[in-house]
Design brief:
Blueprint lengths: L3 H13 L6 E2 L2 E7 L4 H14 L7 E7 L8 H10 L6 E4 L3 E4 L9 H8 L5 E2 L1 E9 L4 E8 L5 E13 L8 E14 L4 E7 L11 E8 L5 E6 L8 E4 L5 E4 L3 E4 L3 E5 L4 E11 L5 E6 L4 E3 L4 E5 L4 E10 L3 E11 L3 E11 L14 E6 L7 E7 L6 E7 L4 E7 L5 E7 L8 E7 L7 E5 L2
Helix pairs in contact: 2-4
């Protein structure tokens, strides 16, 4: 706990001057199927459920047909061989997550939404811009820019897909595939330019054609994707280069790495809060912005992002007893509705060799709350130990006051608390040092 102030100071200092060196990932699902495969229609139905919860900047599907007459060709068959696809349907997310067959959770999209959750808030060190897509000529131009100062992409492929909508009863149908080599890409700001041209079939409807481009590494991982499809006017995204499933120790403060909020559309006004679905009663959910201001997660905080602007926050959680918590960062605006980023935190009790090092005291109560001028902690002491230390923290996780009482007796005890005169009104937390006693929250209102 003594390192919290220093850790927060470094974190805030870093955030104040930081800019994201990545972009949100656009996830691509390659849907391998056939016109003669009944379950392939079930898979497409499930993917439609994913599309209903996302937009073209978040999620794209390309449908690849084998042994399906004019919907198949050698370029498409090569993609089947590349992934080693045998059983149908087979939906592959970002080149890595493969869901084969159809069963429970397919038609309603549950399996596919679970797969998307593994990439939806991921970060990519590269950005792809389609600079030209001439439908009549099949010509496509793109720029690939490295955003990260440390990431290196080598021996990768830039893959071009040409797709057609409204092909009979089918849509998102892959028509052509082209490739370019990316031998090496590194250094923030480094840009590579690419130009390719598809051979167009006169049977294709030019007005229904569209394209997508993605970067595929040698291990088949797709690190970024972009399409020529229109994006929504209001396009809010969240991305982070760390996982949303975290394990921590009980009775600690958890300060997360930055969570970046991107406005990739028109300027918008938002509100943000933390919505807790389940958690131990002695956990408290706060977050801090890039200026070092910290907020209780339960309060809707308004903020504004201009077009193209990004800002960051970090979770600032006070973890109490062992357990798990499921919660969401909820961002809302009249234009985007509700945008939720789920997290799962587990606090596991550490193995302690000497249980005698833990204080036997238990905080049984705190009154009054809110505190105007003074309050009283009620402690239970089941052993004849004569000292206890209560620490007071603000919402930034900074220790602001310490109460140390030495002449305590076995049984029930009271410790008086008078807030330091320099403590402003607001929300605070108390914790009994070196104890499994639950932390608590209180308000100073002078």
């Amino acid at each position: 706990m003594k390192y919290i102030n220093l850790l927060l100071a470094f974190l805030v200092a870093g955030i104040l001057f930081a800019q994201p060196n990545f972009m949100p990932v656009t996830t691509i699902a390659e849907d391998f199927g056939s016109l003669s495969c009944p379950n392939c229609l079930v898979a497409w139905q499930g993917l439609q459920a994913v599309h209903s919860e996302t937009h073209n900047g978040e999620f794209i599907t390309a449908r690849l047909f084998t042994e399906s007459g004019s919907l198949s060709n050698a370029e498409i068959e090569e993609r089947f061989s590349y992934y080693g696809v045998i059983g149908l349907p087979n939906v592959i997310f970002n080149g890595l997550i493969s869901i084969e067959g159809a069963g429970e959770g397919t038609a309603d999209g549950t399996n596919y939404l679970n797969a998307l959750s593994q990439t939806r808030f991921s970060a990519s060190p590269v950005k792809i811009d389609i600079t030209d897509f001439s439908l009549g000529r099949g010509a496509v131009s793109a720029n690939v820019t490295m955003l990260s100062p440390t990431a290196v992409i080598s021996n990768a492929k830039l893959v071009y897909y040409l797709l057609e909508d409204n092909v009979g009863s089918e849509t998102n149908v892959l028509r052509g595939v082209l490739y370019d080599d990316i031998a090496s890409l590194s250094g923030a700001g480094t840009t590579l330019n690419f130009n390719r041209t598809f051979d167009l079939n006169p049977d294709w409807s030019v007005s229904n054609l569209w394209g997508l481009i993605f970067i595929q590494l040698s291990d088949k991982t797709i690190v970024q994707c972009v399409s020529s499809l229109p994006l929504p006017e209001y396009n809010f995204r969240v991305a982070m280069d760390w996982k949303t499933f975290v394990t921590v120790e009980p009775n600690t403060n958890y300060l997360s790495s930055p969570i970046w909020l991107f406005n990739l559309g028109a300027a918008d006004n938002y509100t943000m809060s933390i919505q807790v679905d389940n958690a131990p009663a002695d956990w408290y959910f706060n977050y801090c912005d890039e200026e070092g201001n910290c907020y209780p997660g339960s309060i809707d905080r308004p903020f504004t992002l201009a077009a193209g602007e990004a800002t960051s926050i970090h979770l600032n959680l006070m973890i109490g007893s062992s357990g798990t918590a499921d919660f969401r960062i909820a961002v809302n605006s009249p234009h985007i509705g509700s945008y939720n980023v789920p997290f799962h935190i587990t606090a596991s009790t550490p193995i302690i060799d000497d249980t005698n090092t833990l204080s036997p005291y238990i905080i049984k109560g705190f009154y009054p709350n809110p505190v105007k001028s003074s309050a009283v902690f009620h402690l239970s002491n089941p052993k004849n130990v004569g000292s206890a230390t209560i620490e007071i923290y603000n919402v930034k996780g900074q220790k602001v006051q310490t109460l140390k009482e030495t002449n305590l007796h076995s049984g029930e005890n009271e410790i008086s608390f008078v807030p330091d005169t320099n403590l402003p009104n607001g929300i605070y937390y108390y914790r009994l040092q070196n104890s499994n006693s639950k932390a608590g929250r209180f308000i100073i209102m002078k």
